[in-house]
Amino acid sequence: MRIQNLTLEKYFIKYNTYKTIMTKILGIMLITILFTFTSSYGAGKEIKTVTIKCTEMTCEGCKREITRSIKLLDGIDKIDVNLDTKIITVTFDDKKATETDLIKAIENAGYASEVVK
Length: 117
What we know:
Blueprint: E1 2-5, E2 10-13, H1 17-40, E3 47-53, H2 60-71, E4 76-82, E5 87-93, H3 99-108, E6 114-115
Antiparallel strand pairs: 1-2, 3-5, 3-6, 4-5
Helix pairs in contact: 2-3
């Protein structure tokens, strides 16, 4: 808010210091919250890659069914299915899924498989 005194030709500027201080505090809090969120995002991830052999996989339909079944699991990052070698490579979050979960998912699709060590 600006107050003008015409007789003295002086200007006085009054502003609400409380509002200015609160704006700064809220800005600092927002930056702190955003920094905390972005620095902790993904911190708990344990990325793991496993190779699985599935000798019963013979066609694109098998590949599609196995991929669909694995994708239903939480924490799956990437699935690569090679029909020629009958190898499935899965990258996943170890805290959300396990090798056993992957084998069970493939079995639920109707195929026997085993982890390649």
